[in-house]
Amino acid sequence: MAMEARKIFKSGRGSYILTLPKSWIQNLGVREGDYVYLKTEKDKIIIFLREKKAKKAEFFCENLSFDAVVRRIIAHYLAGIDVMKIRITSEEQRRAIAFASDLLIGAEVLEDLGNEIELSIQIDPDKMSLEDISEKLFRVCHGMLLDLVGCLFNYRREVISSIITREDEVDRLHFLILRLAKENVFLRTFARTLERVADHIELMAESILNLGKSLELKFVEEIPHVFKSACMSFLKKDSNFAEEVLERIESLRRHLISHQRKLMDFKKEEIILVKAILDGFQRILAYSSDIAEIAINLAVFEKITE
Questions:
Q1: Are 239 and 299 within 8 A, CB to CB?
Q2: How far lies 147's CA from each of 159, 160, 174, 203, in Å?
Q3: What is each CA distance from 280 to 200, 273, 284, 288, in whole angstroms?
Q4: Largest CB tally within 10 Å, which of 15, 192, 247, 298?
Q5: What percent of the chain has pLDDT over 90?
Q6: CB neighbours of residue 174 within 10 Å
Q7: Where would I find the SpoVT-AbrB domain in this sequence (predicted)?
Q8: CATH class for domain 56-123?
Q9: Is the dihedral of CA 291, 295, 298, 304 positive or negative?
Q10: Dihedral-angle region of residue 114 (phi above 0 means left; psi in -120 to 50 means alpha; beta otherwise)
Q11: Are residues 181 and 194 in contact, defined by beta-carbon separation less than 8 angstroms?
């Protein structure tokens, strides 16, 4: 359907009137006196002919394992389903539903009939800011990385344990963004990348926990700052800043490679753990580079689509 330009008229003190083309009204079957529903998104006004109805889905778990049930629920959550009716055959599947409801923001068990459970997703996209959620995801992830580096110099078991626990919050925010962002490829990629960074931080924390002591790796102190800069270049859509970040990442990569040669200075039982930590930092730098490149792509995309 072709785009049309329409003039907005003022009506009284607090309202405005916008007329719609007659052909649109006829083609859509709208009649005088019908209600329409409006919402705003950034630089657009969207008109719905009817109030949005909850999306519902039913599925039978049959012989699905714990992990398979969780995956099935996550898939429905990401697809935008609001109400799931899930038929189960075992207590393990019931526990999987409970686990998934804790993992997914807004998920709540509304009804449990024994062999059928109704899971509802209580999320209002209009009251949520993707920008705020993305910044929160970044802050949680960055905080994990800062604490990890701190524990390399000052081993604290309770802080390392909290890092591992916080990875669950990253998963929750990551899934929420994937559900809400829909066709925003840049934001979805950013969220997925941060989720992978958090996975590596968790693995590194477990390695430090097993190592049971501090490590003198002075050059890694710069990595949380570079990661933060890469994320800020994306959130601020700053391509010039992203280019600076990419240069800093390359310098840190060379430091990491040179340090790999010193692995033989450690005891035999420590080498695998230290290598896992160094490999983790290598991956975080690679993901930081990916984020900076996404920032450049986003900045260019927004410029040419203005």
A1: yes
A2: 7, 8, 20, 14
A3: 6, 11, 6, 12
A4: 298
A5: 64
A6: 22
A7: 10-53
A8: alpha beta
A9: negative
A10: left
A11: no
**Do residues 59 and 84 lie in contact, with contact meaning Cβ atoms separated by under 8 Å?**
yes
Distance of CA 170 to the CA centre of its chain: 7
CATH architecture of 126-304: Up-down Bundle (1.20)
pTM of the model: 0.81
Instruction: Say how far apart CA 132 and CA 109 lie, in whole Å.
Output: 27
Q: Is 100 within 8 Å of 66 (Cβ atoms)?
A: no
Angle at 128 between CA 126 and CA 134, to 5 degrees: 140
Residue 143's identity, in one-letter code, is: G
Helix axes 223-235, 239-260, angle to 10 degrees: 160
- Rounded Cα–Cα distance for residues 140 and 176 (Å): 14
pLDDT, tens digit, for every residue of 38-71? Answer: 777 767 787 777 656 789 999 999 999 999 999 9
Beta bridge partners of 56: 83
Report the alpha-carbon distance of residue 177 to residue 196 in Å, rounded: 14
